[in-house]
């Protein structure tokens, strides 16, 4: 007669096996929401970031570069600072958190009058950060940006 193998006899319980499978599934979801840091297009979301967006990251004063680098009608993403700066009209600058309110990815580019997230296709207005196309549930948090001596500074 053949002896039936049980999970306990194989070194683990059914609960252990299911828990392991769940972690593998979670890793796939996190990988799908994140992106590559190559070219500054996206940052990986972690489970603690997924679904969370408390708004703006901490605002630290600092030089973001020359205001002249921000195209009129467009903008620039600063991935390291988690900030996106836009210039909808000449001389009119706005800053927003670059963290998508859907799953915490970093927005990847500003084009066509919108701030675009590469992870799931959310688009935000360059004028006020409002959602132009979901799945993002909320606008990007506004941040303070100033121009002094031709330089962009947060705070």
TrEMBL record:
The keyword Transmembrane helix does not apply. Its cofactor is [2Fe-2S] cluster. Pfam families: Rieske. GO terms for cellular component: membrane. CDD domains: Rieske. SUPFAM superfamilies: ISP domain. Residues 37-68 are annotated as: Disordered. InterPro entries: Rieske_2Fe-2S, Rieske_2Fe-2S_sf, Rieske_Fe-S_prot, Rieske_Fe-S_prot_C, TAT_signal. Residues 43-56 have a biased composition (Polar residues). Residues 62-154 form the Rieske domain. GO terms for molecular function: 2 iron, 2 sulfur cluster binding; metal ion binding; monooxygenase activity; oxidoreductase activity, acting on paired donors, with incorporation or reduction of molecular oxygen. Keywords: 2Fe-2S, Disulfide bond, Iron, Iron-sulfur, Metal-binding. Gene3D superfamilies: Rieske [2Fe-2S] iron-sulphur domain (2.102.10.10). PANTHER family: CYTOCHROME B-C1 COMPLEX SUBUNIT RIESKE, MITOCHONDRIAL. Iron-sulfur subunit of the cytochrome bc1 complex, an essential component of the respiratory electron transport chain required for ATP synthesis. The bc1 complex catalyzes the oxidation of menaquinol and the reduction of cytochrome c in the respiratory chain. The bc1 complex operates through a Q-cycle mechanism that couples electron transfer to generation of the proton gradient that drives ATP synthesis. This is Cytochrome bc1 complex Rieske iron-sulfur subunit. It comes from Actinomadura barringtoniae. The lineage of its organism: Bacteria, Bacillati, Actinomycetota, Actinomycetes, Streptosporangiales.
